[in-house]
Amino acid sequence: MAPTHVLRCCQRGLAWIPVIFIALVVCWSYYAYVVELCIFTIPSIAEKIIYMVFFHLSFVMFVWSYWKTIFTRPANPSKEFCLPKAEKEQYVKEERPESQQEILWRATANLPLYTRTGAGAIRYCDRCQVIKPDRCHHCSACDMCVLKMDHHCPWVNNCVGFSNYKFFILFLCYSLVYCLFIAATVLQYFIKFWTLCRRKSAENCPKNELPDTHAKFHVLFLFFVAAMFCISILSLFSYHLWLVGKNRSTIEAFRAPVFRTGSDKNGFSLGFGKNIAQVFGDERKFWLLPIFTRLSFSYLLSPLSRCVVIRCVVIRCVVIRCVVIRCVVIRCVVIRCVVIRCVVIRCVVIRCVVIRCGVILCGVILCVVIRCVVIRCV
Q: Which residues form a coiled coil (predicted)?
């Protein structure tokens, strides 16, 4: 037990070597640019101020995003994806895969799961003893299941996934800006120092060239390092921008996820705009800041979102249809009542007219009869 623990501690310590290397390079680049270039080499005060302001802006954003990428803990599956104690013991006792799958099928009846293994089985992690949510994978380096795992990056000594993928993208973006800015502003002094190095002595160089000082090494080496990192970061940053636009992870790009209906490399895609919002959130003012602005539960599959949206739309349509039908029925009832009332009023009016006419007719007849009787008597 003790040797295993010591070995694990050694592995954890060695895993920080790439991070320490990057930190040392960044610290040296800060010294070389600010002290050796801006303070001791650049003669113009205005140029110094402009370079220093933009350099520190890119430096702060680069360090901030790098820090967040390193020290943001990967998101793990919630408790609802853990088997209950009784079912977990039953799962461990079962030796047949068919019986184990039956246990998993019962446990996942009410869970939002759409992805399967290549054989169509429920994805279960025996190491973490947890049902894997969609887009969740086990990281052997971190020894845990990570939601929407993209990859384990040795340069940040952390898993890049749901909780820090935005920070990782911004880290690539600002590191590229940082290297590009250094390479672009150092280029003219790099050329001057390079020309100076090719001459035999500093006394033979023209007056407009820089003197041969100890800053020469820092400026020359700074340009080479910035250009080298710029090229490597540009390719990686472009690739991950493509992944963001497709709503894929690095794992899903190499191995298409398997759904109930089969594998589909575009199974998580919601459209370009919504795919970006899945990573950066729906508030654009926070997109360029390394703060957590992801959409809630965006690690879930897009089919789930589609089903929920479709269900909401159907319910809304049914409600609207019921309201419309109710309004039509009420309107028909009102119209019918009005018609009936009009008919009743008309009938009453007609009846009144008939009665009045009858009374008048009876009066006339009675008058005629009385007159006839009177005449006859006379």
A: none
